[in-house]
Each structure stands twice: as C-alpha cells, then as structure tokens.
Specification:
The complex is a heterodimer. Chain A has helices at about 5-25, 30-45, 50-75, 75-110, 125-140, 150-160, 170-180, 190-225, 230-260, 280-285, 290-315, 325-350, 350-380, 380-410, 415-425, 435-440, 440-450, 460-475, 480-485, 515-530; strands at about 430, 450-455. By secondary structure, chain A is an all-alpha fold. Chain B is an all-alpha fold. Chain B starts with 12 loop residues before the first helix and ends with a helix. The chains are: A mainly alpha, B mainly alpha. At the A-B interface, helix 5, helix 11 and helix 13 of A face helix 1, helix 2 and helix 3 of B.
Chain lengths: ~550, ~90
C-alpha cells in the first residue's frame, strides 16, 4: 500500500489511528499489539507472500538477538563476536539472495560467456531497509546498548509501518523508549504536526515529484532507445531527475515522519535541504541521513578503524591533520570511502549504474577531503575562506550530484553515457522552433553557432518551468523540518536555531488559523493529484 | 592514579583529558586544543570523522585498550569517551 494511495489515506491510516487511540484508552498493550497487526496488514497488502518471506527472517533475528543478549550479559566476548558475525552473514545473505542473486548470475554470464539460468526471485518489499535495521539491532545488542526486549518489542521495532518500507533507518534505542513512554492516547499537537508533515510530504510527492516525472522519463526513454540527447535536453533531464528524486524521497520521508508522529513517535530526520549543501561531504550529511549514518557506523568506521590499527601497529602514521601522508590518505580515507560508497550504490540497486554512482560519490568525497586538507594549509583565515568558497562549493556540489544522478536514473551504462555526452555537447544543441520565433533577429546568429531546430516540443518549456519552480523551492525555501522546528518534528533537529545554515526565507509553523488555511490548500492540491500512475522511487530499494 | 592491581589501573578524568588533548592536538597540529568533559567533536575545528577514527586507534595504542566498533559512534562528548576509557582500563584483558 502506497502512502499516496486512496486506500491508505482514506481507509488504512484513519482506521489504524482511530482504533489505536480507542484501544489505548483501555490498554496500552492492546494498542501496541494493534499497531503490530496493522503494520503486518500494511506489509501484506501489496503481496501477502511478503509476510511469509520476511517472518522467518524476523524470528531468526529475534532468536539470535536474545542469544546475543544473554552472551553479552555473561561477558562471553568470543561467543558474542561469533554469533554477531553469524547474524550479519545471515542478514546479508538473505538480502543477497533476494536482491542480488540474478545480478551476480548475469555478471558471471557477461564475464565468462556462460548461460546460467536466471531464477525468478520475488523481492520482499523494503528488504534493503529492513535488513540494515536488523543488522544495526544485532550490533546494538552485542554492544549492550540494548539490554532487554521482548518479541513484541522487536516486532514493533522492525514492523512499525511508517518506516517499514523505505526508512528512515532507525535505531532501537531511538524509538523503543518512546513507545515505552507513549500514552497511546490522542494528542492534538501530535496530530496537527503529524498531519502537516504528512500532507506536506504528499504535496511534494504527488504534485511536485510526479508533476515533473513524465517529462524527465520521456527524455531518459529516448536516451535508452539510443536516440542521441542534445545539450539542453540532456541537462534538463539530469537536473530534472535530481529535483524529482529529491522531492519524491524527501516527500516520502516527511510522510513517514508525519505518520509516526500521529502515534506520538518521533523518527530521525532523513533530509535537510541537501541541494543547499556547500560540499559533497555536507551533501551526504543532508541526503538520506539515516543511510549515511548507518554506513558510517557499521561499514566505514569498522573498516577504517581496522586499517588504522594495522597501520599504527606497523609504526606508520595514521590519517589526520596536516602531517597526513599520501599513503595514509589513500589507505585510510580513499579506499574505505570508495568501498563504502560502492556498497551504498549496490544497496540502492543491483546494477552497474548504481555501483558506478556510488563509486563516483566515493571519488567526490575523497577529493573533497583532500581539498580540505590542502585548503587549511593555504587558507588560514577560515571566515574569508567560507565567504569565498561557499558559493563555489555549492555550485560544484550541485554539479557533481546532478552528474552522478544520471547513472542513478539510467537503466544501463549506455543510456547514462548517451545523456552525459549530450551534457558535454557531443550531440549538438537543438531547441524547439518556437524558441527561434521569440529570438527575432538573434535567431540567425544563434543558428550560425550550430544550434539546430528540434521538434515542436511543448514539454521543453513545461520541463523548464518545472525545473525553475522546483529549483526555487529546493534552493531558496526552508525545509519542512525547519518550518516545524519548534515542535521537534524529527530527532536530531535543532529546535532552537533551525536556520543556522539558511535560507533567508524563514517560516515558523504554529497552530493557528492562518497556517490551517495554508495546510488545507496543500492538502487539497496533494489529494487532487492522487490516483495517477506513481510509485515512490525508493520503494524499489 | 588509582592503582587497582599490578597490571590494570584506571586514570583520573584529568589525566585522560590531558592525554586526549595531546593526541588530538598532535593529529590536528594545534597545541592550543584543551578538551573538557563537555567538549563535542563539532566544537573542535577540523576534528572530522577521519581524524576521529585515528584518534581512537592512537589512544588504543597508547593506553593498551580496545574500543568496540559500536562505541565509536556512540559518544556524545569527550566525557563519554573518558568514562568508557576508564571502564576499559578497569576491565580484565
């Protein structure tokens, strides 16, 4: 069931919330059990088989976690380590089989000319998100950060429907204490904040992201069919998709955070205006924040710590500060960063384009860190540096993010290459004839520069308008978490100073008639655009 | 210094803060760094995630302790690192 479907908005969500509050009036336990049952129903709606696929994995993880808890309590470190490794291997294997088996079989066929038969494997919904959350839980139990839990606690943690399919990826210690404190009663402030976030997210998704999507898809479809994409169309497709996925996924995250808030639960922030980032490091601290946090904590840090320990044990210098050597930079920063980002790419999708997208970001991050090392040697005045470099850094960050997104969107490497060549001007420049009509006497001069007449294409102008409008919203307007900051809409948000890093337009939501009218308009537009063919891009992952 | 037995001993907050400040100062080439129990990583310019990892590896070498991978991301401030380190110094090897 999609968050932007009639059945979710007009049946599932109101019924689940109403019965939750009703049960909560009599019994907290009953309300929590209802929430688990409703979450299972939500998960099973699309394909009931999903529950049968995911349930054994949940039970096995629960058993392993209980075993880990006992072993950790008895301080049996070697056994804790062994069981933890078994748990991680099991979860990665589970994900690997369902999501990557066919990709690897295909890769072997490509590499060796073999012809292994591809199996028809049903991919359980949201498996990538659920797997990461289960691994994080096992690590937390092994580290004694979770010291007691029941099957009911665990099921609620894994299955809580707002974040079940596409995150945010949460830690047990973030949400379960909230459930333990929750009154499970109706709260008007939670309801107002939650609904505002939810419908704001719906507006982003159903109106903005779905609005630009057909035009972007049209150009990528042409690219996939081998039609050379010319300069302006290629750039518009690349920028258009970056805006589409931003509003799609940040809209989804707002909806997830808003739904959880209806039940009195705050989820961690997942987006914080990434397209306003002034460096690629900053970008990853704002884009899909809970994934970045997971990958840093559970992949990058262990790898980097292991490599650093080895290096220091050999008497070589580690990474850090101005004395950083080329060797330590490559070994301790570049390799783990690129490796982590390649895994991030693979996590997003079983395809070469996703892996290359991750690889590119690993390279960008490494260059960014190298620049920071060099810049601090050359530029002592930090404030002046920020003043001069922040605008340049922003432009370069957007350029890199947009360029890499071409791989993320393209179905094949050839398609991506077609669009990138177009962006580089290798396929020439073409504009619709109406552009020439508006240029008057300049038209001849521009034609002489090699600009060709393209087909009469009204979508050219429509896409341009969408890019302009969405760009204004993404680059210049406050984000939903800033607007709602005083009500602590998500974990990890600075509620006192949400506007430290811009933008100049600053809005602050409150429970008032004026804001009710504004939100009602957002609801009306969002609901009016329901029903089209649409799916959240991240549900595939 | 509070000696508990012949092999393992704990250290005071002050001693550990002195050691941590020296290590961070050495990594970032800034002798003026003086960490306190409430210092956060974000309070120290350039103490990014990369030199943070290196900091732990250096402390491990110097004090003969071993942090868990899960520890590294869990510390809210230097005080939490001090307390964890004291616990590790007390724990049997």
């Amino acid at each position: 069931m999609l968050f932007n479907s009639y059945e979710f908005i007009f049946f599932f969500l109101p019924a689940t919330a109403a019965i939750f509050f009703l049960f909560g009036h009599f019994s907290r336990v009953l309300a929590i059990r209802w929430l688990i049952a409703a979450s299972l129903f939500f998960y099973a709606w699309w394909r009931p088989l999903n529950v049968l696929l995911i349930a054994p994995s949940i039970l096995i993880n629960f058993g392993l976690a209980r075993l880990l808890m006992r072993l950790a309590r008895d301080d049996k470190r070697a056994l804790v380590k062994t069981v933890l490794i078994v748990g991680i291997v099991f979860n990665v294997g589970f994900l690997g089989y369902f999501k990557y088996a066919n990709f690897f079989v295909g890769a072997v066929d490509d590499a060796f000319g073999t012809n292994f038969v591809l199996a028809k494997i049903i991919l359980p919904l949201g498996i990538s998100f659920i797997t990461f959350q289960k691994i994080a839980f096992l690590v937390d139990v092994a580290a004694k950060r979770v010291v007691s839990f029941t099957l009911q606690d665990y099921c609620l943690f894994v299955l809580f429907f707002p974040q079940l399919i596409a995150g945010p990826i949460v830690h047990y210690r973030e949400v379960m204490p909230q459930f333990q404190r929750a009154t499970c009663r109706y709260n008007s402030e939670d309801m107002a904040v939650g609904l505002t976030l939810f419908f704001g997210g719906l507006f982003k998704k159903a109106f903005l992201a779905d609005g630009i999507a057909p035009m972007v898809t049209s150009i990528y479809d042409q690219a996939a069919s081998g039609h050379p994409i010319t300069l302006l169309y290629a750039w518009m497709a690349a920028i258009g998709f970056t805006l589409q996925i931003y509003f799609d996924f940040s809209g989804y995250s707002d909806m997830a955070i808003g739904i959880a808030r209806l039940f009195g639960i705050r989820l961690p922030a997942n987006f914080f205006s990434p397209l306003r980032a002034t460096s690629i490091v900053d970008y990853w601290l704002r884009w899909h924040m809970t994934l970045t946090r997971f990958l840093t904590a559970y992949l990058y840090n262990p790898l980097s710590l292991w490599l650093t320990r080895r290096r220091l044990a050999r008497g070589q210098r580690g990474f850090g500060g101005r004395k950083t050597t080329v060797g330590s930079f490559v070994t301790l920063l570049m390799l783990p960063t690129i490796f982590t980002m390649c895994i991030s790419g693979l996590w997003h999708g079983a395809g070469y384009t996703f892996i290359f997208w991750g690889f590119l970001h690993g390279v960008f991050l490494s260059i960014n860190h190298l620049w920071r090392l060099l810049a601090q040697r050359q530029w002592a005045d930090r404030q002046r540096y920020e003043r001069v470099m922040a605008p340049l850094g922003w432009a370069l960050t957007v350029f890199c993010a947009v360029g890499a997104m071409v791989f993320f969107r393209s179905p094949t490497m050839a398609t991506a290459w077609n669009v990138l060549q177009g962006m580089a001007g290798r396929h020439g420049v073409a504009v619709p004839p109406t552009v020439f009509e508006h240029l008057g006497s300049l038209a001849g001069a521009i034609r002489n520069l090699g600009v060709a007449l393209g087909p009469i294409d009204t979508r050219f102008f429509a896409l341009l308008e969408w890019i302009f409008a969405l760009g204004l919203l993404a680059f210049l307007c406050p984000n939903s978490l800033q607007v709602l900051a005083r009500y602590e809409p998500a974990l990890g948000i600075d509620t006192l100073a949400p506007y430290k890093s811009g933008p100049r337009l600053r809005l602050s939501w409150n429970i008032s008639f004026g804001w009710a009218v504004a939100v009602a308009a957002v609801v009306a537009v969002g609901v009016a655009h329901l029903g089209g063919v649409s799916e959240f891009l991240y549900w595939h992952f | 210094m509070d000696v508990l037995d012949s092999d393992r001993h704990t250290m005071s907050e002050r001693e550990l803060l002195g050691i941590f400040s020296r290590i961070v100062g050495d990594l970032l080439e800034d002798d003026s760094i003086a960490l306190s129990m409430t210092t956060r990583r974000s309070d120290v310019p350039d103490w990014d995630s990369f030199s943070y990892i290196n900091f732990f590896a250096t402390v491990e070498m110097e004090l003969n302790v071993r942090y868990g991978v899960a520890d590294v991301e869990s510390f809210d401030d230097v005080g939490a690192i001090v307390r964890r380190t004291q616990a590790l110094l007390l724990a049997p090897e």
